[in-house]
Amino acid sequence: MPLKKEDGHVLQSLRKRDVLRDIEGNRLAADNGVILVTCGDGDQFADLFQHKAGMVAGTTGKPRFHTLSLNGGALLIPKGSPFNQDIPYDQVLLENIREAVRLKDIFTVAVYVHAPCGKAKSASLDFADVIGLAVDAKRRIRDEVRVSGLKVAAFCHVDWEDGKRTYHISAEAWDQWSQSPPVSMLPSSIRSNSSVS
Ligand SMILES: [Zn+2]
């Protein structure tokens, strides 16, 4: 199932404004491995993981992954996530990240969202909402896992017209984009002024 056309327009705008960046030049420093937080979507995970393995192999030569995978991935982590009403998935994942750091001495966390994602669709999140939640997830991990030297980066895997791609998400560029998105593309989270933005 490819990305919807309107979401494709948002994707293009986010690319143009440098929110979604090519991985080259934005490689992760992952000397002792990566804690990978991702949705486990059976149609996308193999491509996502293969790409990730290539990225890390390119920097260290020995991929070492500690994967935490629940439906929705990073979408579950922000305080404003719609998915933590009944079950505290955010606390489950934050505690698992803390534990993984402790058990494996891995100090790099890569949080992933992807599109299209069935979990996002179940809460009527559009593409911009998904990117906003990824940025919020990154910041919450940084603020609440509180481990000295911890690096957290956010990524988006997209299955669109020209195939599957992975982008690095710039939180700073997202802040600028979300403050002045193209008028025709206001994300619903901004329109409704909810905490998802
Ligand atoms: Zn998914």
Gap between N and C termini, in Å?
25 Å
Task: Enumerate the distinct ligands.
Answer: zinc ion
* Proportion of residues in extended strands: 15-25%
* Radius of gyration using CA atoms only: 16 Å
Key traits:
197 residues, alpha/beta, 6-stranded mixed beta sheet, 19% strand, disordered C terminus, binds zinc ion
Secondary structure blueprint with pairings:
Layout: H1 5-16, E1 20-21, E2 34-38, H2 45-60, E3 65-69, H3 89-104, E4 108-115, H4 118-122, H5 127-145, E5 151-160, E6 163-169, H6 171-179, H7 188-191
Parallel strand pairs: 2-3, 2-4, 4-5
Antiparallel strand pairs: 1-6, 5-6
Q: Could you explain how this protein is built, in words?
A:
By secondary structure, the chain is α/β, with parallel strands linked by helices. It is built from 7 helices and 6 strands; from the N terminus they run H-E-E-H-E-H-E-H-H-E-E-H-H. A 6-stranded mixed beta sheet has the order 1-6-5-4-2-3, sandwiched between helices. The radius of gyration is 16 Å and the shape is globular. It starts with a helix and ends in a 6-residue tail after the last helix. Residues 39, 41, 72, 114, 117-119 line the site of zinc ion (ZN).
Short description:
The protein is α/β, with parallel strands linked by helices and 197 residues long.
